[in-house]
Specification:
binds pyridoxal-5'-phosphate; Aspartate Aminotransferase, domain 2; alpha/beta; Aspartate Aminotransferase, domain 1
Length: 377
């Protein structure tokens, strides 16, 4: 069944470092699908401090933060990410996935309701499933529908609105100003997953709340995308973070992040805050690529983010389209159900600040040739 529907999944291995040009199956290809938006994953200074961190503390962290795994580096990174996000306190998790699960399953409980955008990331969906709260899914970025759910849930103990800041498969920015206004009107809490927004949008790359100039109750994020390293985080008030430190099972029962990774994250945050050159370059490339694809006749989703989805439709056709792109030297795998709704399989093109203009020209040339051959344009 999975094969027939074009939904079988295989692994591809990268045989080089994560530069804009990577080696796959022995050939150099332009990487056009990585979440390494600022190119920091292969930054020499990050690699240097990661090695120093490991020399000082070891490779593995040897235990949960609450037992033996907590180092001064972990505490420093929490201080830095809280300051970056202008929040009172922060808590590290081993991944963004675990952060979402930990927050939603512990904060929202019996008698509460979670109102969740229909295109929220799978880790939010799993967090909702683990929570004892009821979950209601509202239509994607549909504020009238969200309002109706808020009206209908007034008998509930507490209401939590949860949304991706930047939607991971559609590349659009959530209407957070409107969400915050509705939350104020109905006395609800707002939780934002800023996985794809951190380092990319808002003042100094602070994320979606900063982009709109609003504040929210809890922000979840990951170091694994624009920040170029690994690990998840949650920022919010001191009370919320203290609660999570004591209750979030995916925090309590998880080995702490490797000290080397934590050291690299500290350095990456410094780079992101003090130098806007990478972010400025990324946004120039985003403009060039989005405009180029539209000029070719493609309809692309989203706006203002490095995620540029080109919807193909059928899953098998999307896979063939992706293989044809790869023959032209562009690596961008097809994204299929269940990552995206049935019938909306797509090439999820993403850009990095380190892509050169000629590489983006090459991506556009490949899309011209393959799009014509597949009669998509
Ligand atoms: C990638 C992603 C996550 C998970 O983060 P990891 O650190 O990779 O576990 C969570 N939410 C969204 C929206 C994401 O895109």
């Amino acid at each position: 069944m999975i094969e027939e529907k074009g939904l079988s999944r295989g692994l591809r291995s990268v045989e080089s470092s994560y530069q804009p040009l990577v080696q796959i199956d022995g050939e150099a290809k332009v990487m056009a699908a990585s979440n390494n938006y600022l190119g920091l994953s292969s930054d020499e200074s990050l690699i240097g401090v990661a090695i120093e961190g490991m020399r000082s503390f070891g490779v593995g962290s040897t235990g949960s933060r609450l037992t033996t795994g907590n180092t001064t580096l972990h505490e420093l990174l929490e201080k830095r990410i809280a300051r970056f996000k202008k929040c009172e306190d922060a808590l590290l998790f081993s991944s963004g996935y675990l952060a979402n699960i930990g927050v939603l399953s512990s904060i929202a409980g019996e008698g509460d309701v979670i109102l969740s955008d229909e295109l929220n990331h799978a880790s939010i969906i799993d967090g909702c499933r683990l929570s004892k709260a009821a979950t209601r899914v509202y239509n994607h970025v549909d504020m009238a529908d969200l309002k109706e759910h808020l009206v209908r849930s007034q008998n509930k103990r507490r209401r939590f609105i949860v949304t991706d800041g930047v939607f991971s498969m559609d590349g659009n920015i959530a209407p957070l100003r409107d969400i915050v206004l509705l939350a104020e009107e109905f006395n609800a809490y707002v939780i934002v997953d800023d996985a794809h927004a951190t380092g990319v949008i808002g003042e100094n790359g602070r994320g979606t709340a900063s982009y709109y100039g609003v504040s929210v109750d809890v922000t979840i994020g990951t170091f694994s995308k624009a920040i170029g390293t690994e690990g998840g985080f949650v920022v919010g008030s001191k009370d919320v973070i203290t609660f999570l430190r004591n209750r979030a099972r995916s925090f309590i029962f998880q080995t702490a992040l490797s000290p080397g990774i934590v050291a690299a994250s500290i350095r990456a945050l410094e780079l992101i805050q003090h130098d806007s050159a990478l972010r400025d370059q990324l946004h120039l490339s985003i403009k060039q690529c989005r405009e180029g694809l539209r000029d070719l006749g493609y309809s692309v989703l989203g706006e203002g983010t490095p995620i540029i989805p080109v919807v193909i439709g059928d899953a098998t056709k999307a896979v063939q389209f992706s293989s044809a792109l790869e023959k032209e030297g562009v690596f961008a795998p097809a994204i299929r159900p269940p990552s995206v709704p049935e019938g909306s399989s797509r090439i999820r093109l993403t850009l990095m600040a380190t892509h050169q203009k000629k590489q983006i020209d090459g991506i556009l040339r490949a899309f011209l040739k393959v799009g014509k051959a597949f009669e998509v344009i």
